[in-house]
Amino acid sequence: MLVMVASVSGAPGVSTAAVGVAALWPNTPGLLVEADPCGGVVAARFGVRQEPGLAALAAAARHGLPAVGPMRFVQVLPLGVHAVVGSGAADTCAGAVSVLASRPAALAGLAPVVVVDAGRLYPGSPAQGLLSRVDALVIVTAGDTEHLDHVDTRLAGLRVSVPTPQVGVAVVGKSAYEPQEVSGRLGVPVWAHLPTDRWGAAVLSGRLSGPAWTRTRLAQALRGLAATLAAHPQQQPSRAALEVVR
């Protein structure tokens, strides 16, 4: 399964959400692939090397090498998550993502579950080339009118590239709108509400550590999102499930 986590506006915590979904995937963690054309942050946040990583994977794919045996491209984050990290240099990342977008099997074949952090899907982003291969696209957005407007205007174009209805949103922080209102307006399900949780966010961005992080409100919400994606990515979680993570 190939899951893309992205935003269309601002910086609502896409990398944090992607790390959490990979870490908390049911039964076994997913493989995180940091494919943000604007540059990677995961290596710096967690204190691991930038290479081998996304650039090495793209170079292998460009030369027609088989997309198997992913360990040579992988770093292990302190959370125990295996990750193909992006370079901090935007031009290097953009070039690597462009190569992989033309060879999506190089990502899909890396592991049974691959979680792609695509950063912001701005118009013309190289990461949009991966959309035709993803099984689920999670749009992370703030819950205010401004950001929901941006999602609304971009969704039609994005859904052309993604097999419908496997597109949904994860709303970050407080919102004046109920999940049903957001879903009704956007025409896609609200798969999760990600609460403002500084402790959970600090662990998922490499600033804190400790085994208790999986009990934070943010971790609980991301675990629910991962379970929803793993089971029925086309379905909206129940209102009761959403209330648990508020």
What does this structure look like?
The chain has 246 residues and is of the alpha/beta class. The chain has a single domain (2-244), classed as P-loop containing nucleotide triphosphate hydrolases (Rossmann fold). It has helices spanning 14-23, 42-46, 54-62, 90-101, 105-108, 145-161, 179-186, 198-204, 217-231, 239-244; strands at residues 2-7, 31-34, 75-76, 82-84, 114-120, 136-142, 167-172, 190-194. Strands 3-4-2-5-1-6-7-8 form an 8-stranded mixed beta sheet, sandwiched between helices. A hairpin with a 5-residue loop joins β3 and β4. The longest helix is centred in the middle third of the chain and has 17 residues, at 145-161. Mean pLDDT is 88; it is low at 233-246.
How many structural domains can be distinguished in the coordinates? 1
Percent of residues in beta strands: 15-25%
What fraction, in percent, of the residue positions are helical? 25-40%
Class based on secondary structure composition and strand pairing: alpha/beta
Give average pLDDT, whole number.
88
CATH class: Alpha Beta
Rg on CA atoms, Å: 17 Å
For the sheet with most strands, the description reads:
8 strands, mixed
**Judging by the overall fold, what is the CATH architecture?**
3-Layer(aba) Sandwich
Strands of the largest sheet, in order across it? 3-4-2-5-1-6-7-8
The CATH topology label is Rossmann fold
Number of strands: 8
Give the count of helical stretches: 10
Unreliable stretches covering 5 or more consecutive residues:
233-246
- Strand-and-helix sequence, N→C? EHEHHEEHHEEHEHEHHH
Name of the CATH homologous superfamily? P-loop containing nucleotide triphosphate hydrolases
What is the distance, rounded to the nearest whole angstrom, between the alpha carbons of the first and last residues?
Answer: 28 Å
Query: What overall geometry do the principal axes of the alpha carbons give?
Result: globular
